[in-house]
Amino acid sequence: MGVEVVVDGLSKSFGPQTIWRDVSLNLPQGEISVLLGPSGTGKSVFLKSLVGLLKPDEGKVVINGTDICTCSEKDLYEVRKLFGVLFQDGALFGSMNLYDNIAFPLREHTRKSESEIRNVVLEKMEMVGLIGAEDKLPGEISGGMKKRAGLARALVLDPEILLFDEPDSGLDPVRTAVQNQLIVDLNAQIDATFLIVTHDINTARTVPDNIGMLYRRNLVMFGPREVLLTSDEPVVVQFLNGRPDGPIGMSEEKDTALVEAELAKHGRPQVPPMMPQLEVSPGLPDRTAVHRRKDRVLRQLRSLNPSAQEEILKSLTPDELALYGFASPATGSWPQQQAAPQAPAPQAPPQQFPPPQPAPAQQPAPAQPQQQMRPSPHPRQPEEEPAWPGGLQAEEETAGSRRRWFGRKRGEQ
Ligand SMILES: Nc1ncnc2c1ncn2[C@@H]1O[C@H](COP(=O)(O)OP(=O)(O)OP(=O)(O)O)[C@@H](O)[C@H]1O
């Protein structure tokens, strides 16, 4: 099973240029997460920081109990073995055929015999649909095949965390859709923790369990897919609609007056309807992360915005609704919680994302999922207060208009 990645208060600058600051999120184990953001917002820098290729200025990235920002080189080397990375162009060696490219990490980092290597390489090539292309050189294959070869190479060391840097770049919509299905199928087979950086709206709408967005040097959102996909935040709506009018400009953020003028002229864009998440192809195992996620998300349901709650509840079967103590849709408007929800008895301490906080005193029902909100850091100017003023109570956050913004508070584990 994949491992959880805990990012806490991460900030990165290059000289005077702040790339992002105070980024906190958890990548839940085995789940697929997507990171969106306009060009230049530092998504690739974020991926590189997760693997320890770039050192952030502040904050932690904790994996299996090791903070890779401060650990020794030896520990970093060990933690890196957990990662597989698919770079944009596959990052293949041009002079090696696909077989040798994919075998490369095994020859470099393991003592496997050539026959063992062959078994692993062919198994991974089969997983990504490349059997028969072993002898091809990278220059002889399409961009999509290069990506799949890069993916097979990222898989040979059995990663527990798989990072994808714009896997859809340069692919046509059909190939992108095929690749998206491949990603979901792979997740079902290896149950690793996936993080995908992408600009592709369809990918964001159909693949992940969780979505985050970087904008104006902040992580404006990270959490269950239903939250971002039902958000009416102008920057999210603009991004999901792929429209030029809105706060995101060509190179810098537009000023508010210009945005308002554009919206007055073209009308306010609507949040596009939710699309169903891709299911695993027939014949493959279920994604176990889906079950873990359901439990986790339902525990935090009440802290999410009403549209997200509605979408989450709509995705449940009648049996699941009954199991978690929710009324069925036929009985009235969503969401209707009956008595205290009866979650299935967990076999291990339940995964919660973010971790629970003590219930505020004024919240009477202890069985309700607890609040996990954070106020919006967006739009946050350098001179503004930090995102987490001390002593802010969960209930105060809930009552505020910024319910939809959430994440872990700095310092929480
Ligand atoms: N090693 C580096 N040294 C200095 N600046 C860098 C370095 N790497 C990235 N940057 C800068 O960080 C900013 C964010 O870059 P990054 O590639 O992470 O953005 P991105 O969100 O992935 O963009 P895109 O979506 O276009 O790929 C850019 O301004 C880039 O020039």
UniProtKB/TrEMBL annotation:
Protein name from the UniProt record: ABC transporter ATP-binding protein
PANTHER family listed in its UniProt record: INTERMEMBRANE PHOSPHOLIPID TRANSPORT SYSTEM ATP-BINDING PROTEIN MLAF, PROTEIN TRIGALACTOSYLDIACYLGLYCEROL 3, CHLOROPLASTIC
Keyword flag Protein biosynthesis: no
SMART domains: AAA
Region (Disordered) location: 267-290, 327-413
Bilayer-crossing regions: none
Pfam family, one: ABC_tran
Organism: Saccharopolyspora karakumensis
